[in-house]
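Customer escalation, tier 2.

The customer says the design service returned an amino acid string that "doesn't look like it belongs to this structure." They asked us to rerun it and document both sides in this ticket. The original structure tokens are below, unchanged.
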């Protein structure tokens, strides 16, 4: 290289250095020597990520003549706490011992005694909507979660799309230097995006969480969960007879926190810990059930009185609180038969065990933080429940919650057959609505009911020993899930960004609760003055100590299967002054019509602002609405070879239609056995398989009955065509039909069935070809993985049109038409 060329290059390097040195980095706060590996910076945070820092060293022709420069590592403001955000599931205000319940919750006690208990904290009344509000700081309709993702429709408030304009608290903290992780229930990814085809932008790893360990949907079996690590399915229960997800999740979180500490002890963490209990199925370890034997023999009415007395004694309800009346359509305990009392007490024992077991495992996670010496500078927020206690178990409870979710009740005498295995891997149980109502003491109603506090009031405790000094204090300010994100941001000294990844952000709609931490502000006015509520048409509006609420036209345990009034004009309204009437016991609507009208008008204003319209009071019918998954518009599906773990959203849906399954197989010498195709498992689904060489099609109607088509003879070695053809007797969901099993064109079995699964075949199993995962459709026939030992040349599904009633079609057509508007 010539001397002239060298001088020219040096001139370019020099001019670059001048441009770099002139960059505006005035907002950054850098520690350490700039350019060294140990240098850090705390960013302004308005725009995430920040612009890449300029190179601050010198570049010449050789390394000896140059000066290296490392960009500073982004860290949160000095002293920013770790954050452990905990939330349980389907737990009303009267469940935990911390808030007057009879179920011991020592981990929640620990947080409350070290910090504060909040007695007017609220959810949205349903799972995914609450979780979307919690992680975004925005109202659930604002981020597309007016309902759970499985019921999403084509409206901005109901499409289950959070969107990049609504960055989660995980994304914000991550880009400000936190290690972020999520353990447990997810339920904020569109249900039609659960497959390996993605996209993954609304999975936890795409929403700002470095690490995810949990399940994607609304529930899962705790013994054989549908489980993911980041984006990969895992099967940890195989070979582990004592496995339970509640313990496994705590183990994973503890290991993760310890590993973070070993790798980067000074890096603060944000752990979002949401175990999914006590949502059905109620499946604690048996030693926990033993602890509650006989504890609920007094019945639900006496339980309610006991909880109410405890709440007054603890001061978590005002002294003048009235116990709302017992509903007329739920039986009183003393009217029950001996068998009913025995069964219902068992349901509550297992549920209580599940609550206590879950709290114990949460306590292990809290203790792990303490063991590392980090608890004093950790903001722990422990929310007991994402909504009120669930009424989805029907009035009599159920050993199989997928049946109850679809309006199918199991008689008491049939349920008693499962008494000794209630909560084990042989059941997926739920309890009677009457227990749910009692566990929501002192309020009316339950989960799904957004108009009343039985659906939305949650016990919550918050501790941060380095900052919150009023240990054991009570706070009565009115707050909501959307207020958690701004509280975390204020605690960490991190601002809500105006732009994230190039996308302008919707404003955070919550307000910080940090003002309540000072003892001087014990009785300060609520920073939240207004909050709307809406779920399935039931709605309410809170404003400065008043709340106006619609009267639910039908109880949630009827699942919207009864005739409902016009969602806008057909609802009655109630009015309460909750500053004086904590439990919504004294309806003032008839006495104060002007105040009620003022509140109704305010609801319209808030609902318009936050994407609540159009309102819809259909419930299970919305499960039938087509969604933009990878099966949309397809009626022929073809597979070859072996495949396992395909989410139902990407598999052929045989519900409420005629269908034909054709399998071309090659049987080896010595005969064949194994699964050809299956969806679901022990608690609902179907399987086409060879058993000792004989072709079998088995249909598992939610464990209530199993219908079987079986050929009389084993298949000979060589190629065969196996066909199962089903003609559906629609219209309407859950109707029966006729199934014909054929081998090489010859009919070998023909049977009519009276019923099929109406809305949901499974929530926690997958579609498999050539094997079976998780649980078998019939434990008496085979055990997993039941691999097919022949060859599957081609497997084809041909689906007929969905056969719905005229009313069902109206609901779907309405959703599709309005979604296009």
């Amino acid at each position: 290289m010539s001397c002239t060329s060298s001088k020219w290059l040096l001139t370019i390097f020099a001019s670059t250095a001048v441009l770099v040195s002139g960059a505006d980095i005035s907002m950054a706060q850098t520690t350490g020597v700039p350019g060294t590996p140990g240098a850090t910076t705390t960013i302004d945070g308005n725009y995430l990520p920040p612009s890449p820092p300029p190179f601050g060293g010198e570049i010449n022709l050789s390394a000896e003549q140059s000066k290296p420069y490392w960009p500073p590592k982004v860290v949160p403001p000095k002293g920013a706490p770790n954050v452990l955000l905990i939330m349980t599931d389907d737990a009303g205000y009267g469940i935990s011992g911390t808030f007057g319940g009879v179920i011991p919750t020592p981990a929640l006690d620990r947080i409350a005694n070290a910090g504060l208990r909040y007695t007017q904290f609220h959810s949205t009344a349903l799972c995914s909507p609450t979780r979307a509000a919690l992680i975004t700081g925005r109202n659930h309709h604002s981020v597309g979660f007016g309902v759970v993702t499985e019921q999403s429709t084509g409206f901005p408030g109901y499409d289950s799309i959070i969107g990049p304009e609504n960055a989660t608290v995980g994304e914000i903290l991550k880009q400000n230097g936190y290690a972020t992780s999520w353990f447990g229930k997810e339920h904020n990814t569109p249900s039609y995006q659960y497959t390996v085809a993605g996209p993954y932008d609304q999975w936890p790893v795409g929403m700002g969480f470095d690490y995810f360990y949990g399940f994607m949907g609304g529930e899962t079996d705790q013994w054989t969960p549908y489980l993911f690590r980041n984006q990969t399915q895992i099967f940890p229960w195989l070979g582990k007879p004592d496995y339970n997800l509640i313990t496994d999740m705590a183990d994973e979180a503890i290991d993760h926190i310890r590993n973070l500490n070993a790798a980067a002890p000074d890096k603060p963490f944000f752990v979002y810990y949401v175990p999914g209990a006590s949502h059905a199925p109620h499946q604690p370890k048996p030693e926990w059930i033993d602890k509650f034997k006989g504890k609920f023999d007094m019945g639900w009415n006496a339980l309610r009185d006991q909880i109410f007395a405890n709440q007054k004694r603890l001061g978590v309800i005002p002294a003048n609180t009235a116990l709302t009346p017992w509903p007329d359509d739920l039986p009183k305990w003393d009217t029950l038969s001996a068998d009913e009392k025995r069964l219902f007490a068992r349901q509550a024992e297992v549920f209580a065990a599940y609550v206590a077991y879950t709290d114990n495992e949460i306590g292990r996670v809290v203790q792990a933080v303490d063991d590392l010496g980090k608890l004093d500078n950790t903001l722990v927020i422990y929310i007991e429940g994402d909504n009120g206690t669930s009424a989805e178990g029907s009035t009599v409870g159920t050993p199989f919650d997928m049946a109850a979710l679809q309006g199918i009740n199991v008689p008491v005498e049939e349920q008693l057959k499962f008494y000794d295995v209630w909560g084990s891997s042989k059941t997926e149980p739920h309890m009677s609505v009457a227990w749910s109502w009692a566990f929501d003491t002192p309020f009316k109603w339950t989960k799904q009911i957004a108009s009343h506090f039985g659906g939305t009031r949650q016990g919550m405790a918050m501790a941060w020993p380095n900052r919150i000094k009023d240990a054991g204090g009570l706070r009565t300010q009115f707050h909501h899930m959307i207020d958690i994100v701004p509280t975390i941001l204020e605690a960490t000294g991190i601002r809500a960004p105006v732009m994230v990844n190039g996308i302008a952000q919707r404003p955070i709609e919550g307000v910080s609760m940090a003002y309540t931490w000072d003892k001087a502000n014990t009785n300060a006015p609520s920073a939240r003055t207004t909050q709307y509520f809406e779920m399935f048409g039931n709605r309410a509006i809170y404003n400065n100590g008043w709340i106006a609420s619609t009267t639910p036209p039908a109880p949630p345990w009827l699942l919207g299967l009864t005739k409902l009034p016009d969602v806008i004009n057909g609802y009655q309204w109630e009015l309460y002054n909750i500053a004086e009437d904590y439990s919504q016991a004294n309806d003032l609507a008839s006495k104060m019509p002007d105040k009620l009208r003022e509140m109704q008008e305010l609801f319209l204003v808030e609902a318009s602002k936050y994407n609540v319209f159009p309102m819809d009071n259909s419930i299970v019918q919305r499960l039938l609405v087509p969604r933009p998954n990878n099966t949309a518009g397809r009626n022929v599906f073809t597979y070859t070879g072996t495949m396992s773990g395909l989410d139902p959203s990407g598999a052929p849906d045989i519900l409420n239609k005629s269908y034909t399954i054709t399998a071309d197989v090659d049987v080896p010498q010595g005969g064949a056995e194994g699964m050809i195709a299956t969806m679901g498992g022990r608690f609902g689904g179907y399987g086409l398989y060879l058993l000792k060489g004989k072709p079998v099609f088995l249909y598992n109607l939610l464990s209530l009955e199993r219908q079987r088509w079986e050929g009389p003879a084993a298949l000979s070695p060589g190629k065969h065509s196996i066909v199962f053809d089903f003609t559906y007797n629609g219209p309407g969901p859950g109707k029966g039909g006729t199934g014909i099993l054929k081998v090489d064109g010859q009919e070998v079995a023909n049977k009519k069935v009276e019923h099929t699964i109406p809305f949901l075949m499974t929530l926690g199993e997958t579609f498999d070809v050539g094997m079976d995962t998780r649980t078998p459709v019939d434990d008496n026939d085979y055990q997993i993985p039941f691999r097919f030992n022949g060859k599957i040349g081609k497997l084809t599904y041909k689906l007929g049109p969905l056969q719905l009633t005229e009313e069902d079609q109206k609901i779907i057509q309405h959703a599709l038409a309005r979604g296009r508007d």
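Tier 2 assessment: The sequence is consistent with the input. DSSP finds 15 helices and 33 strands in the chain. Residues 636-807 form a domain with the Jelly Rolls fold (CATH 2.60.120.200). Sent an explanation to the customer and offered a walkthrough call.
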